[in-house]
Write a structure and sequence with these properties.
About 35% of the residues lie in helices and about 15% in strands. The chain is of the alpha/beta class. The protein has two domains: about 10-175, 3-Layer(aba) Sandwich (Rossmann fold), CATH 3.40.50.1260; about 185-385, Rossmann fold (3-Layer(aba) Sandwich), CATH 3.40.50.1260. Strands 5-6-4-1-7-8 form a six-stranded parallel β-sheet. A six-stranded parallel β-sheet has the order 11-10-9-15-16-17, sandwiched between helices. Helix 12 (about 335-345) links the parallel strand 15 and strand 16 (about 350). Helix 7 (about 175-190) packs parallel to helix 14 (about 375-385). The longest helix has 15 residues, at about 40-55. It is elongated, with a radius of gyration of 23 Å.
Amino acid sequence: MARFRKRTLEDLVPGLEPGTPVLVRADLNAPLGDHGVADDSRLRAALPAIERLCERDARVVLCSHLGRPKGHDPRTSMTPVSNCLSDLLGKRVHQAPDVVGPEVRRGVARLDPGEVLLLENTRWEVGETRNDSALAEELASLAKVFVNDAFGTAHRAHASTVGVAAHLPSVAGPLLEREVTNLTAIAENPERPLVVILGGAKVSDKVGVIDRFLDTADVLLIGGAMCFSFFRAKGLSTGDSLVEEEGVAQAAEALDRAHAAHARLVLPEDLVLGDRFEAGAERRESEGPEVPDGWMGLDIGPRTAEAYAKEIAGAATVLWNGPMGAFELEPFAAGTRAVAGAVAASGGTTVVGGGDSAAALVDFGLADQVTHLSTGGGASLALLEGKALPGVEALDDA
């Protein structure tokens, strides 16, 4: 297992005095429904750091973004999140009226040891995404130490992830530490054979991961709409399938590289087609990878699903990022379900990237049957590509 080279919450805890205000950057960017938080998985992932600090009688000041507001927007208030967190923690989480300012400072001062205050949506402040130094300094003034436990935003140099770390002793929370450690181990020192499964819509989103794992994986299995960029690059007909035009040239380069690469790059041999992108679409299975006019590929076919499952079963390490098709439409979910089942049944180390592949595991009831389920989409991809994450680099070295 890769060594984590930054200071962590457990390095901080032994010397933490009761009543110390601690600023925690968490990833509480949960989807909202008509009755509050619709999926509390990210909130649950943030609980260990919060509970650990409460056990030590810290005054916990939480901050996070929610959605992508362009300034102050009541529709993206953190109030539903603080309500949900209160239920999960079994204690009240106080809601601040703003991100920074006099009322926020008074709210922090009123906290008793072991209590929690959640600041308003950090993206209500226009300086957040610009890593504004004044905003970072004002956030830092609320606490004596900083804990970054928001892996999902670690690839962004924002005021609440990077800026505050310049003003306070700064450590990684347990979620951030676990994510970096597990994903780095996959990329740098996996037990072999290593099978990497990549799906989703765009080659351009995954081209850096493809490039890296062509050299380090044993097998790359390609699915999702991104396979059509590869088929187009091979001169095959794609019908009305979603094709990322920018990705065609990138797919062609990957195919050229694959001839001399360590990894085998495997494309679907058959597909499930629909006449439109709807659950009620007419459905049929193709004999091969080509798609006739008037049809679109919406899932990998049964032969491909079986072949991919066999590759996964023979792996010592599996990395999966991206669904195999439109799994949200039940008639086109079989390929993703087959891959999810094979990953869950694998006896090796299994790591699933954030986003839709994680959602698929949850939908299929398999989320607790993998070694590591990542909470970060873009951050996961950046780390797997070998990029430095600003939110991690800003923390104190171990």
